[in-house]
Specification:
Layout: H1 2-21, H2 26-37, H3 43-51, H4 61-77, H5 86-96, H6 102-117, H7 121-138, H8 141-157, H9 161-177, H10 181-197, H11 201-219, H12 222-238, H13 242-255, H14 263-275, H15 279-287, H16 296-313, H17 316-339, H18 342-361, H19 365-411, H20 430-444, H21 448-459, H22 463-496, H23 500-507, H24 513-524, H25 528-535, H26 542-555, H27 561-566
Helix pairs in contact: 2-3, 2-4, 3-4, 4-5, 4-6, 5-6, 6-7, 7-8, 7-18, 8-9, 9-10, 10-11, 10-12, 11-12, 12-13, 14-15, 14-16, 16-17, 17-20, 19-26, 21-22, 21-25, 22-24
Length: 570
């Protein structure tokens, strides 16, 4: 009996020891609570507290999750670039198992941030959207703004300005609702950046200047002021406002150390000096930069400056080589963006969300039937809406065609002077002209696959054979329209044709937006049938529209009309 009693005592003691061993000490719990309470106001102090914790004292998943979240949060706020998501994944895994919560929202946010550092934008967008939806669910204005800002940054990185602007608007609105004025002002600076990317240079500069005035006069905030100038400098450069750009660079030199100024800014400044003929300053700047430390975009900026430099010296071989390098980098960036299929990631997120919702609701066969009926109803309604939208679109197209026919009849008897089109740029030497043609042809050849597919599609005799080509055509169109969009094509045309569209928009205000889009696609080298598919015009009207636009530009008094006309392929 005594032996049985001893065994029982031993078991009881073992159980108690095990229970105590699995509990995190009160001291560690208090440290976690303290770090969380001061995180927003003093992230440095919070990080110091977190790093003082011995991880062997964390005895359960709950405390490990809180430690992981606070650790990553503090390091992010203190500008520590985190390259691995292994720690934050531990927090995400735990909080996902506990249902929706503010801690899950925060864990997802910082997980997405780390993935952005790794350039994994597809996974980042998936997770960031989840975090954003949770913020909306909790009606937390600050975190709605913060997650929206993160999504905007992701879309900027993937050249989707439309979605970036949408989430930037949310960031601006909700930072103001949360009474976070500094965050609100930074979001307005981001809006200036987005407007600049969309070629709305004057609006972008106006926004950047207004925020800079607030930073300088009201807040005396040098960091915000420096950020405004960071945004404004490339906008002024791209807009051709070189004196303003140089003034921005001078201010940055006063506000920042040399190493903190973005490397590609030096490439832009070199291009300005090159434009001004200050070759010695160009060499001085270039010699101060280690191009091997540059990323792809930064190298492309320097290569473009080198191309201009060698063109100025008449060294066309080196100029051509650098152009080839630029195109190679751009193609690499394009493929990287295509690999980061954000649209597909977001579709997957909402699909998974829908599945989870269905699982929760599908408690009986009756509920499943109801869901199916609802789904079918949505499909039917969607189909009806689609048919109606197509009908409306057809009416609009027919109206546009009628307008074109009327305009065509008005100019039918007017003569077209083609002899002057061969002199595209007065005063250029024959070698430079040949070089420009080679550069433009190289740029336009990017669309050769799409042009070939469109031509093949229209040459098919039967409807069945046409249908077989649709998949290939759609694939190529999506690469251009859904990924880069018309604005991206316009940016490329400007890059390889000396900002011709910028000049066209400034001088030819009498043209409509649809006319600009038509001309951009022509300049880019798209075939007539391809342009017709993009713009939804009939092929038989293509050349009438082309002739009409050439005639309108020719009869105008704009200074660069011969240049604009010369870029229309013969």
């Amino acid at each position: 009996m005594q032996k049985i009693y001893s065994i029982a005592v031993w078991i009881a003691v073992s159980v108690l020891v095990s229970a105590f061993a699995s509990c995190t000490s009160k001291e560690v719990r208090d440290k976690l609570t303290e770090a969380e309470s001061i995180m927003e106001e003093a992230p440095d102090s919070a990080l110091h507290i977190i790093t003082s914790i011995d991880t062997t004292d964390l005895k359960n998943r709950k405390d490990w999750a809180k430690y992981a979240l606070l650790n990553v949060q503090a390091r992010t706020k203190t500008n520590d670039i985190i390259k691995s998501d292994s720690l934050i994944s531990r927090a995400v895994s735990y909080y996902q198992g506990k249902g929706d919560s503010p801690d899950l929202m925060k864990s997802l946010f910082y997980n997405a941030d780390i993935l952005c550092n790794q350039k994994k934008f597809d996974r980042a967008s998936y997770i960031a959207t989840n975090s954003y939806d949770l913020a909306l669910e909790f009606k937390d204005s600050y975190w709605i703004a913060k997650t929206a800002e993160q999504l905007s940054d992701i879309y900027i990185a993937c050249y989707n300005e439309v979605e970036a602007k949408k989430y930037n608007r949310d960031a601006i609105v909700y930072y103001e609702k949360a009474n976070r004025r500094l965050n609100h002002l930074y979001s307005w600076c981001d809006r200036a950046l987005l407007e600049g990317n969309s070629l709305n240079y004057n609006r972008a500069i106006e926004i950047a200047d207004s925020i800079a005035d607030i930073a300088r006069v009201e807040l005396n905030d040098s960091s915000l002021l420096a950020y405004c100038i960071d945004v404004k400098f490339p906008i002024c450069f791209n807009a051709g406002k070189y004196e303003e750009a140089k003034e921005c660079f001078r201010k940055l030199e006063q506000l920042k150390s040399f190493s903190d100024i973005p490397i590609h800014f030096f490439a832009h400044l070199s291009s300005i000096y090159l434009h001004e003929g200050k070759i010695n300053k160009v060499k001085l700047l270039v010699d101060s930069i280690d191009i091997n430390q540059c990323d792809q975009k930064e190298r492309a900026a320097f290569y473009n400056m080198y191309r201009q430099f060698y063109l100025k010296l008449g060294d066309y071989k080196n100029a051509y080589d650098y152009l080839d390098s630029i195109i190679h980098i751009q193609n690499k960036i394009t493929w990287d963006i295509m690999d980061n299929n954000i649209a597909l990631a977001q579709k997957g997120y909402y699909d998974n969300k829908s599945v989870e919702s269905l699982k929760k609701e599908s408690k009986s066969k009756k509920q499943v039937v109801i869901i199916v009926i609802i789904a079918l109803t949505i499909i039917i309604i969607g189909f009806m809406i689609y048919r109606i939208s197509i009908k409306i679109k057809d009416i609009k197209i027919e109206k546009s065609i009628n307008e074109i026919i009327i305009l065509t009849e008005q100019i039918k008897n007017k003569s077209i002077e083609n002899k002057e089109l061969s002199n595209s740029i007065h005063g250029r030497e024959e070698q430079i002209s040949n070089m420009d043609i080679e550069i433009e042809n190289l740029f336009r050849n990017q669309w050769s696959t799409l042009n070939r597919l469109c031509n093949e599609f229209f040459e098919k005799e039967s409807e069945n054979s046409k249908l077989s080509s649709i998949a290939s055509i759609e694939k190529e169109i999506k690469k251009i329209v859904n990924r880069k969009n018309i604005g991206s094509i316009e940016e490329s045309v400007n890059k390889y044709m000396n900002n011709i569209v910028v000049a066209l928009r400034e001088q030819c205000s009498f043209l409509k937006e649809e006319d600009f889009i038509f001309i951009i696609l022509v300049y880019a080298g798209f075939a007539p049938r391809t342009i017709c598919m993009f713009t939804n015009i009939k092929f038989k009207h293509f050349y009438n529209k082309r002739s009409r636009l050439i005639e309108r530009i020719k009869k105008s008094d704009v200074k660069d009309k011969e240049w604009f006309i010369s870029k229309f392929p013969k």
